[in-house]
From TrEMBL, chain A:
Role, per record: Probable oxidoreductase that may play a role as regulator of mitochondrial function.
Domain annotation Amine oxidase: ranges: 15-515
Subunit annotation: Interacts with COX5B; this interaction may contribute to localize PYROXD2 to the inner face of the inner mitochondrial membrane.
GO molecular function list: oxidoreductase activity
Domain of life assignment: Bacteria
The protein's name in its UniProt record: Pyridine nucleotide-disulfide oxidoreductase domain-containing protein 2
Pfam families recorded: Amino_oxidase
Species per Swiss-Prot/TrEMBL record: Mesorhizobium denitrificans
Automatic annotation (TrEMBL), chain B:
Domain GCVT N-terminal as annotated: residue spans: 57-270
Keyword Protein biosynthesis: no
Annotated GO MF terms: transferase activity
Source organism (scientific name): Mesorhizobium denitrificans
Pfam families: GCV_T, GCV_T_C
Binding site for substrate: 215
Keywords associated with the record: Transferase
Residues in Aminomethyltransferase C-terminal domain copies: 313-398
Highest rank taxon of the organism: Bacteria
PANTHER family attached to this UniProt entry: AMINOMETHYLTRANSFERASE, AMINOMETHYLTRANSFERASE, MITOCHONDRIAL
Protein name as catalogued: Aminomethyl transferase family protein
Transferase found in the keyword field: yes
C-alpha cells in the first residue's frame, strides 16, 4: 500500500504518539522512521558489548493524557513512582539530597535552609502549575480564537486570580527573572542553588544569570510523573521501554510502522501536501503529512523553501537551535563510589553543579565557542534499577554534560579528547577511582547527536526553548498551532509547542489539530 | 609617529566623503548641473535629482510633442543571474516570469507573506538566466533571503549602471539619428543591446509616460558619452532634458502609479491599515494563481475568496479645472470614502483627472454620487470646493504612437 490518509515523518516518541492518535481516530496511517529503530534519542541501544543506554535518560514529563490516550500501561510501561532522589554533589564536602518529587524532603541541609527550600519549592510548583495548562494545550491563536481556546485562556486568568493578590504579583515579578537571582533571594546553600541553576538551564544556551533562565525551571516543574509535579524516574528497561510501549500502542491501533524508511522529500503541489518520497525513491501519497522531526529540517530540507513565502523562510531559518549538551556513556567494571553518597542513593540523579557561579562559569566560554575545564553534569546509573542494561557486575554511567557548544571554535575533532579529559577529571573529583573502572567511553558532542539522531544542532528541544521561541512563537510566530502555510502539512515534534523532553505533548496536540481540522 | 597618525586620520576623513555630499550625484550630474537653471533638486533614493531644469511646462510638452530626456539612474537596480533566476523571480514577483521571453520587459510587483505590496517595478529579461529588476525602494535583504534554496545571485547595481529615459513622439528619430541601427525593430516592451563606444547600451521600448519612448542603460563610465550622443542625435528633433515634475504629469495621464505616492510600500508603512494588496492598487491583473507558489499567494487568494479586500484604486474625472491633489473623496457629499493620491489638469486629455484610493464598496460596486473636496488656497484664504467625481478607466490618455510599428518619426 502506498496511499494513506496520513503520513507521519519521524518515529521519535512524538511521531509515534501522533500516528497512534490518528490511527485510533480511524485514519490509515504510515509512520516513517529513517533509522532501523524507533525512538530517536529515547531509544535504548548498545554502546559497548553488553552495555546499553539511551541518550535521554530520565523521564520527568511524560504527559498523563499521553499515557492515557495510548494506554501505555496496558502496553507494558511501568511507571513506578518509587522515589528517585536528586543528589546535589559537592566538590569537597557532603552531598545534599532532595527526596520525593523534586525535593519534598531535603537531607544534608540546615533546618532553616530546609524551611526556606520548602517555601520556595511550594511557590515554584504553584507558579509552574499556572503555566502547566498553557504548556499542555495548543497555544492561543491570537487571530480567530475558538470558544474553547478563549475559555482555556480565561481559565489561566482565573487561576492567576485565585493566587491572591500578593502571590499573583510575585508570579508576574518573577516570570522573566533569572534563576540565580531567585535562588539568591531565598536560599543560602550553594549546592541547592547550583542544582536549581543547572536544572533551569539544562538543554538551553543560557547561564543561570541570563535573563529569563527561571522559565527553564518552570518548564521542568510543569512536568509530572504519577501525578507528582517535578517527579522523575528511570523506567525499567530504560527510556527504550517507553518507546516499546508506545510502538506497541501504535501497532495495535493499526499504524503501519516502517523503519529504515528515510523520507527524502515532502511533496507539495499547488500549496497542498501530496505525500512523501523516500530515499529509496519510493513515493507514498497522503493528503496529510505530519512531520515530527526538527521543524527546520521538515520545512526547509524536506519540503523546501520554494514552497513557502520569504518571510516564513526567514523566520524558520532564524530559529536558534545550536545544542549545548553533550552526552557521556561509560561502561564501568563495577558500581562506582561517589563521595558521601550512600549506595541506595546511587539510583538517584546525581548532579555535579556545586554552585550557581560554577554553572555560570561553565556557561561563559560556550558563548565564545569554547568549553569550560570544569563542566557541570547530571549523572545517572540506569543499570542499577535495570540490570539488563549491563553485563553481570558491570555498570552503565549516563551523563548529560554542559556546556558543549555546537560549533566549537577549535573543531570537535581536536576538542573532543580534551573535553572528555576535562569531564573525566571532574568525575574523578566526585567519584575517585572511577577512571580505572572505565572499560569503554562514548562521548557524543552536539554534532554527533545531530548526525546520529537527525536532530539539527543536536538540540535537546529541536530549537532553543527561550521566551522568544516559546508558546505563540514556537516554532515561529504566527504558526504555533501545528499547521504550516502548506495545506495538509503539520509539525508535531519537540520544535513545536510546548517543546522538548519525553512528554508526547507536541505529537498529541498536532494529531488533535489534524483531527479538529478535517471532520 | 605623528605623521602616520595624521595620514591615518586624513584617510579616514576621505573615506567619509558621503557626509559632505548628503545626496549622491548622478552619473549625469555634470550635464544636469549645467542645465539646471532652476536649481530645484529633490532626493530620489539618495540621489540628487531635479524637479525641473528650466521650466516644467516646457519639459512636459517636450514629452508630448518632442523628445524629453530624463535621468533614471537613481532607480534601484538588481542584477539577478543564475540557473534558478527564473524560478526565483517567479517565486518573488507576482507575474508569471516563465511567460517573459528573453529580450522582453514586464511591469510587475512583489508582496510579503501577508500579500501586501512591497514595491512595483520593471523586470528586464536579457537571456534565459539573466535579469534586471528595477524599482523604487531597496530590497536586497528581502531578495537575498528569498534566494535561500535557489541557485541564483542577486547583486545591487544601482551605482554601477546609469539610466536614461527618452520619451516623446520624436524619440525614435533621435535614436535613429544618434546611430542606433535597428532600433526601429523594437516593439513595445522589447529590449536589445546596441553598440556604444567600446561597449554596449541596452535599449528597451519602455517608459513611464504612456508615450512612444525608450529607456537606455549603460555602465556609468559611458554615461556622459551616451548623453552627448543623444543630445547630438536629437538636435533637430527638439530633444530636451527634463525633471520629475514634467514626468509626473505624464505618468498621471498614463494612469501609472508611484510607490510611496499612490500607495505605501509594505516595508515603509508604519500604520498597519496603510498596507495594500495588489488587488487594492489596481495590480490584480498581475496575479497568476496557476503559476505555482509565489510570495503572498495564500494571503491574496484568501482575501479574494473571503472578500476581505478593503480598498480599490480608481481613476477619477473631476468637474472643473482645479487639481484635486490629496483631496478627500466623499459619497453623497457626506461619507468619507477615500483620498486622492495624485491629480492634475491634464493638458493632453483636457480633463481634470486624479488617481484615488477608495474604501470598498465605493469605487468598486458603488461608483455613483462621488465627490471630492478641494481646498484651493487663494490669497491667504481657502476656497472650499465640492466637485463631482466620476470613476473612469485608466489610462486617461491612450496614444497610438506608443505601440505603433514601425515607430513614428514625429
Ligand atoms: C543529550 C540529550 C539528552 C537528553 N536527555 C533527556 C532526558 O533525560 N529526558 C528527557 O525527557 N528528554 C531528554 N532529551 C530531550 C529529548 O530527547 C527530545 O526532546 C525528544 O527526543 C524529542 O522527541 P521528538 O519525538 O520530538 O523527536 P526525536 O526524538 O528527535 O525523533 C525524531 C525522529 O525522526 C527521525 N527522522 C528525522 N528525520 C527523518 C527523515 N527525514 N525521515 C525519517 N525519519 C526521520 C529521527 O531518526 C528520529 O527518530 C535529551 C536530549 C539530548 C540531546
Amino acid at each position: 500500500m502506498t496511499s494513506f490518509d496520513a503520513i507521519v515523518v519521524g518515529g521519535g516518541h512524538n511521531g509515534i504518539v501522533a500516528a497512534t492518535l490518528l490511527a485510533k481516530a480511524g485514519r490509515r496511517v504510515a509512520l516513517l522512521e529513517a533509522r532501523p529503530e524507533l525512538g530517536g534519542p529515547a531509544r535504548t541501544e548498545e554502546f559497548a558489548p553488553g552495555f546499553r543506554v539511551s541518550v535521554a535518560h530520565i523521564l520527568n514529563r511524560l504527559h498523563p493524557e499521553v499515557v492515557k490516550a495510548l494506554d501505555l500501561e496496558a502496553n507494558g510501561l511501568v511507571l513506578d513512582a518509587s522515589d528517585m532522589p536528586s543528589v546535589a554533589l559537592s566538590a569537597d564536602g557532603e552531598p545534599l539530597i532532595l527526596t520525593g518529587a523534586y525535593g519534598e524532603g531535603l537531607s544534608g541541609a540546615s533546618a532553616s535552609e530546609a524551611q526556606a527550600w520548602s517555601e520556595l519549592r511550594a511557590q515554584l510548583i504553584r507558579y509552574a502549575g499556572i503555566l502547566k495548562p498553557m504548556l499542555a494545550r495548543r497555544p492561543p491563536d491570537l487571530s480567530g480564537m475558538t470558544f474553547g481556546e478563549t475559555s482555556a485562556l480565561g481559565m489561566i486568568g482565573l487561576s492567576l486570580r485565585r493566587l491572591g493578590k500578593e502571590d499573583m504579583r510575585d508570579f508576574l515579578r518573577m516570570f522573566l527573572m533569572n534563576v540565580a537571582d531567585v535562588s539568591d533571594d531565598c536560599l543560602t546553600d550553594d549546592r541547592l542553588k547550583g542544582l536549581l541553576a543547572f536544572d533551569a538551564v539544562m538543554g538551553s544556551h543560557l547561564g543561570p544569570r541570563s535573563p529569563t533562565s527561571l522559565l527553564g525551571l518552570y518548564y521542568r516543574l510543569a512536568g509530572e510523573i504519577g501525578g507528582k509535579a517535578g517527579a522523575q524516574i528511570t523506567p525499567s528497561g530504560g527510556m527504550g521501554a517507553v518507546i516499546t510501549a508506545m510502538a506497541s500502542a501504535a501497532r495495535k491501533a493499526g499504524v503501519q510502522v516502517r523503519t529504515d524508511a528515510l523520507v527524502a522529500r515532502i511533496n507539495v503541489q499547488d500549496a497542498r501536501v501530496t505525500g512523501v518520497a523516500l530515499g529509496s525513491g519510493e513515493e507514498l501519497t497522503a493528503p496529510i503529512v505530519l512531520a515530527a522531526t526538527n521543524p527546520f529540517a521538515a520545512l526547509m530540507e524536506l519540503t523546501g523553501p520554494r514552497n513557502f513565502d520569504t518571510g516564513f523562510v526567514r523566520k524558520v531559518t532564524n530559529i536558534r537551535m545550536k545544542g549545548s549538551v553533550a552526552k557521556l556513556h561509560l561502561a564501568l567494571d563495577g558500581l562506582p563510589g561517589f563521595k558521601g553518597v550512600a549506595e541506595q542513593d546511587l539510583r538517584g540523579r546525581l548532579v555535579f553543579a556545586p554552585s550557581t557561579n560554577h554553572v555560570e562559569r561553565a556557561f561563559n566560554p560556550s558563548k565564545y565557542g569554547g568549553f569550560s575545564p570544569e563542566p557541570v553534569m547530571e549523572i545517572v546509573l540506569p543499570s542499577i534499577s535495570d540490570t539488563s542494561l549491563a553485563p553481570a557486575g558491570g555498570c552503565v554511567l549516563s551523563a548529560n554534560i554542559m556546556f558543549a557548544p555546537y560549533a566549537l571554535k577549535e573543531g570537535w575533532e581536536k576538542g573532543k579528547p580534551k573535553f572528555l579529559k576535562a569531564v573525566m577529571a571532574q568525575l574523578e573529583r566526585v567519584a575517585p577511582g572511577i577512571g580505572k573502572q572505565v572499560r569503554h567511553a562514548e562521548l557524543l558532542t552536539p554534532p554527533d547527536i545531530e548526525q546520529r539522531y537527525r536532530m539539527p544542532g543536536g538540540h535537546w528541544h529541536h530549537g532553543e526553548l527561550q521566551a522568544d521561541q516559546m508558546l505563540m512563537s514556537r516554532p515561529v510566530a504566527g504558526w504555533s498551532g501545528y499547521d504550516t502555510p502548506v495545506d495538509g502539512l503539520y509539525l508535531g515534534g519537540a520544535g513545536s509547542h510546548p517543546g522538548g523532553g519525553i512528554s508526547g505533548v507536541p505529537g498529541l496536540n498536532a494529531a488533535r489539530r489534524v483531527l479538529a481540522r478535517k471532520g | 609617529m605623528v605623521a602616520v597618525a595624521k595620514t591615518k586620520s586624513r584617510t579616514k576623513l576621505a573615506e567619509q566623503a558621503h557626509f559632505r555630499t548628503l545626496r549622491l550625484p548622478s552619473p549625469f550630474q555634470p550635464r544636469l548641473e549645467a542645465l539646471a537653471a532652476q536649481q530645484d533638486w529633490y532626493d530620489w533614493a539618495g540621489y540628487k535629482a531635479p524637479h525641473a531644469l528650466w521650466d516644467d511646462e516646457l519639459e512636459y510638452f517636450a514629452i508630448r510633442s518632442q523628445a524629453a530626456l530624463f535621468d533614471i539612474s537613481p532607480m534601484v537596480k538588481y542584477r539577478i543571474e543564475g540557473p534558478d533566476a527564473e524560478a526565483f523571480l517567479n517565486r518573488v514577483t507576482l507575474r508569471n516570469v516563465t511567460k517573459l521571453k528573453p529580450g522582453r520587459v514586464h511591469y510587475t510587483a512583489w508582496c510579503d507573506d501577508e500579500g501586501y505590496v512591497l514595491d512595483d517595478g520593471t523586470l528586464f529579461r536579457f537571456s534565459a538566466d539573466r535579469f534586471r529588476l528595477c524599482c523604487q525602494e531597496r530590497h536586497l535583504p528581502w531578495l537575498l533571503d528569498s534566494a535561500i534554496g535557489y541557485e541564483v545571485s542577486v547583486v545591487e547595481e544601482t551605482q554601477e549602471v546609469a539610466g536614461l529615459a527618452l520619451q516623446g513622439p520624436t524619440s525614435f528619430a533621435v535614436l535613429r539619428d544618434a546611430g542606433f541601427k535597428g532600433v526601429e525593430k523594437l516593439k513595445i516592451f522589447d529590449l536589445a543591446e546596441f553598440p556604444h563606444e567600446k561597449g554596449s547600451v541596452t535599449i528597451s521600448r519602455t517608459g513611464f509616460t504612456g508615450d512612444l519612448g525608450y529607456e537606455l542603460f549603460v555602465p556609468v563610465k559611458q554615461a556622459l558619452s551616451l548623453w552627448d550622443r543623444l543630445i547630438e542625435g536629437g538636435k533637430l528633433h527638439g530633444i530636451r532634458p527634463m525633471g520629475y515634475t514634467a514626468l509626473n504629469r505624464a505618468r498621471i495621464e498614463a494612469g501609472l502609479i508611484v510607490a510611496n505616492a499612490d500607495f505605501v510600500t509594505g516595508d515603509s508603512a508604519i500604520r498597519t491599515d496603510r498596507l495594500r494588496m495588489p488587488d487594492e492598487i489596481g495590480l490584480g491583473f498581475m496575479i497568476d494563481p496557476a503559476k505555482g507558489h509565489f510570495n503572498g499567494r495564500r494571503a491574496i487568494l484568501d482575501a479574494r475568496q473571503n472578500k476581505t479586500l478593503k480598498h480599490v484604486l480608481v481613476g477619477l474625472e473631476i468637474e472643473g479645472n482645479i487639481p484635486a491633489e490629496h483631496a478627500i473623496v466623499y459619497h453623497r457629499g457626506k461619507r468619507e470614502v477615500g483620498l486622492v493620491s495624485a491629480a492634475i489638469w491634464s493638458p493632453t486629455a483636457k480633463r481634470n483627472i486624479a488617481i484615488a484610493s477608495l474604501q470598498r464598496p465605493y469605487g468598486d460596486t458603488v461608483v455613483d454620487d462621488l465627490w471630492v473636496e478641494i481646498y484651493a488656497m487663494r490669497e491667504l484664504q481657502y476656497h472650499k470646493l465640492m466637485k463631482r467625481a466620476k470613476v473612469v478607466p485608466r489610462p486617461f490618455i491612450k496614444l497610438d504612437r506608443r505601440t505603433a510599428n514601425p515607430p513614428g518619426e514625429r
